[in-house]
Amino acid sequence: MTRFTARVLAVLGCGLILGAPGSAIGSVVPNACIAGIGLWDSREQVAREWGPPTSKVKDWQQRWWEYPKGTVYFVLLRNRWIAVEIRTTDRRERLSGVARLNGLGVGSWRNEVHAATGGQCRGGSKFCQIASSTRGGTRTTTVHFDGPRGKRVIELSISDDSWWEDGATPPDTRCRSSQ
Q1: Residues 101, 82: Cα–Cα separation, whole Å
Q2: What is the distance, to the nearest Å, from the Cα of residue 24 to the centroid of all Cα atoms in its chain?
Q3: Model pLDDT, residue 138
Q4: For the domain that residue 54 is a member of, what is the CATH number?
Q5: 26, 100, 124, 169: which is deepest, by most CB within 10 A?
């Protein structure tokens, strides 16, 4: 192998490793998962999908794992760390699974989100909840804009706001192909 070929392969490999939070690029299932990471996933499951975090923030019974284009928020529940919020800033991540929302993601225009949500997400807010469910608690999917009058989506997040309630939520089969 020539030196040039080795350099090209090294650059491509680094791009694949560092370019995205996980292996399931393009897959945001509302109220369930982002890039293969699902609500109620363990730290071990997150590490298998996205690899080791670039940084960790610890605070009593909470942990934030930071990645180049994503963040996972964990809480300690019954001696088990579970993911209760997942965020992405990766422009390749797109919503799927809900027809009216399919294709929306980081970089989408506010007016596209407004049209897809039947009039929600007007100007004046930095974020807007675009989907919610009560499957295993109160789960929400939120788009974050670049300011109150911002016109672009800069982040997508999913969260389970009632994780403290008793009972484990089964993993969503749409989140990982290996389930």
Answers
A1: 27
A2: 11
A3: 81
A4: 2.60.460
A5: 169
| Cα 93 to Cα 33: distance, rounded to the nearest angstrom | 11
4, part of any domain = no
Distance from first CA to last CA of the chain, Å, rounded?
Answer: 39
- Would you tell me how many other CB atoms lie within 10 Å of the CB of residue 112? 17
- Calpha distance 33→173 (Å, rounded): 10
Residue 71 is predicted with a pLDDT of 96
Which residue segment(s) compose the domain that 39 sits in?
Answer: 22-160
Contact between 25 and 92 under an 8 Å Cβ cutoff? The reply is yes
Tokens (6 digits) for 36: 């293969």
Range of weakest confidence among 32-36, 74-78, 172-176: 172-176
CB 51 within 8 A of CB 63: no
Q: What is the mean pLDDT of residues 77-94?
A: 92
Proportion of the chain above pLDDT 70, given as a percent: 75
114 lies in a domain? yes
Q: Would residue 32 count as lying in a domain?
A: yes
Q: What is the number of structural domains in the chain? A: 1
Identify the pLDDT of residue 66: 96
With respect to residue 9, please indicate whether it lies within any of the assigned structural domains.
no
